[in-house]
Write a structure and sequence with these properties.
By secondary structure, the chain is α/β, with parallel strands linked by helices. It contains 15 helices and 20 strands. The strands form 4 sheets. Strands 7, 8, 9, 10, 11, 14, 15, 16 and 18 form a 9-stranded mixed beta sheet that branches. A 6-stranded mixed beta sheet has the order 1-6-5-2-4-3, covered by helices on one side. Helix 3 (86-101) crosses helix 4 (122-137), helix 5 (164-192) packs antiparallel against helix 9 and helix 8 (233-239) runs antiparallel to helix 10. The protein is elongated and about 85 Å long. The two termini are 31 Å apart. Bound molecules: ligand BES, manganese (II) ion and zinc ion.
Length: 519
């Protein structure tokens, strides 16, 4: 689907579906007002019928509106006349996207970016609307025989703005929205694929394909032999119980010197090129890539176990974030690292009580083989040092306890650097992909004591998400680090079972903000 921005008079536009937001009491915002004035008060006459409910997000579709140029008119209720909250705006654009889906319109003209949202500019509004459209257009039917059912008719959405300045700002938001959509779709596709298709080898193949598609991305894959040489005993102990070989996937995105670095600068101005410039330290993103987690010998209950194909959603979000960064040509360096394995019961699998040695040299007593994510992550986190990172952010469906703490709406963030954590929290707020900080501290570290090794891989019944992060923190002392636990947010269960693509929006917003500051 194509997204465009245009500025001009609303009366002159031809479209298959004109979308305008309206308020109670006939109060109209500029586009609707002007349209109304030029159509013998047609919009007001429609509102007077009372067919459009006042509640925010209600829609009314009019076919062949007699006074207008367009084939359809979609009125979207903005509720009572007041400035909208961010949540209001998202509700409104989501409702618009669903209403559009019920029509056969191939193109639409959207005036919703003119609605006032507290503390948000037109770029934000365009970004959010573009994301809402992308979200509703997504379907995963590649494994079904009948693939045609869900193809949306809409092929082009144009945002109408009042002037050039607004158009330029909106365009920036649209570009970001498109890139985030591409990242979300990649993350959703990888996550929704079943464990027998999406194996560690499949992820590695996909990473190589990204390296081919985007010249700025360089992919390399470490096989088990190489990991053995590096002493990754924790990671390899997990994959020993599986017939699928583990992979350590590394995707290096070099955006420093990308054309967009020169955006807003005069051509030839300093910077924007790699010459004479010290290599920027990268943001390292580490994603948990358990393509299936049965728990190992500490096996999980059968009910709902299919959902453990989603135990690679952290990895998928790293793929997604890199794609978005490459699409936006963000002028920063990013390294995506994905340790990938299965966790299955087997004659050669980890057993409770086993002690393994990590790449960092710490010995780990595996008291529960189902706490495998931290075992593969700890070696990947140690490996991250090699890239001399500015910051490291790991993303993982790490603990069921995170769902107990925060449910399915909010991801958890923990780490050793409060500035980094704050930037991630802010990015989550802006992108409607919220995270919430959980505490860490020595009292929790105590819970990881082992009688037989340097540390245990579980910390007892209380504060499971925190002790999991504490475990990781033992391997991240040399750099600024944060951990996102996305166990509750990465996918939905029940009738709407499917990946959400989270936290791609948060990660990309963080990277966009970082790139802005780097300029
Ligand atoms: N992948 C799971 C965590 C998980 C469970 C995510 C359910 C989403 C939904 C992880 O590998 C795991 O099994 N964690 C254990 C840790 C425990 C043994 C300390 C858990 O949360 O039960
Ligand atoms: Mn597990
Ligand atoms: Zn797991």
């Amino acid at each position: 689907m194509q997204f465009l921005v245009k500025n001009g008079d609303i009366e002159k536009q031809r479209t298959a579906c004109l979308i305008i937001g309206v308020y109670e009491e006939n109060k109209l915002y500029p586009a609707a007002k002007s349209l109304n004035a030029n159509s013998r008060r047609y919009i007001q006459s429609l509102l007077k019928t009372g067919d459009l409910k006042v509640a925010l997000g209600q829609t009314l579709l009019i076919h062949k509106p007699i006074e207008l140029n367009c084939e359809r008119l979609l009125l979207v209720s903005c509720g009572k006349d007041k400035s909208l909250s961010e949540a209001d705006y998202r509700k409104l654009v989501t409702a618009t996207a669903s209403a559009l889906k019920t029509t056969a319109a191939k193109d639409a003209l959207c005036c919703l970016t003119e609605l006032p949202v507290k503390e948000r500019d037109i770029a934000w509004k365009a970004q959010q609307a573009t994301q809402a459209m992308g979200n509703l257009q997504y379907s995963f039917d590649q494994l079904k025989s009948d693939k045609k059912k869900d193809i949306p008719s809409l092929k082009k959405l144009t945002y109408l703005t009042a002037n050039q300045t607004e158009a330029k700002q909106a365009k920036q938001g649209v570009d970001e929205g498109i890139a985030i959509n591409a990242g979300i779709n990649e993350a959703k596709d990888l996550s929704n694929l079943p464990g027998n298709v999406c194996t560690p080898t499949y992820l590695a193949k996909r990473a190589r394909a990204l390296g081919k598609k985007y010249p700025a991305i360089k992919t390399s894959v470490l096989e088990e032999k190489a990991m053995e040489k590096l002493g990754m005993g924790a990671l390899l102990s997990v994959s020993r119980g599986s017939r699928q070989p583990a992979k350590l996937i590394v995707m290096e995105y070099e955006g420093q010197g990308c054309p967009s670095a020169a955006r807003g600068r005069k051509p030839g101005a300093a910077d924007g090129s790699n010459k004479n410039k010290k290599k920027q330290k990268p943001v390292v993103l580490v994603g948990k890539g358990l393509t299936f987690d049965a728990g190992g010998i500490s096996i999980k209950p059968s009910a709902g176990m299919d959902e453990m194909k989603y135990d690679m959603c952290g990895a998928a979000s790293v793929f997604g974030a890199l794609i978005a960064a490459a699409e936006l040509k963000l002028p920063i360096n990013i390294v995506g690292i994905v340790p990938s394995s299965e966790n299955l019961p087997d004659g050669d699998a980890n057993k409770p009580g086993d002690v393994v040695t990590s790449m960092a040299g710490h010995t780990i007593e595996i008291l529960n083989t189902d706490a495998e994510g931290r075992l593969i992550l700890c070696d990947a986190l140690t490996y991250s040092k090699k890239f001399d990172p500015d910051v490291v952010v790991d993303v993982a469906t790490l603990t069921g306890a995170c769902i107990v703490a925060l449910g399915h709406h909010t991801s958890a963030v923990l780490g050793n650097d409060n500035l980094l954590i704050q930037s991630l929290l802010d990015a989550g707020e802006t992108s409607a992909d919220r995270a919430w900080q959980l505490p860490m501290g020595d009292e929790y570290q105590e819970q990881l004591k082992s009688n037989f090794a340097d540390l245990a891989n579980i910390g007892g019944p209380g504060a499971g998400s925190i002790t999991a992060a504490c475990f990781l923190s033992r391997f991240t002392e040399d750099y600024r680090w944060a951990h996102l636990d996305i166990a509750g947010t990465a996918w939905k269960s029940g009738a709407a079972k499917g990946a959400t693509g989270r936290p791609v929006p948060l990660l990309v917003q963080y990277l966009i903000n970082k790139a802005k500051n780097a300029r």
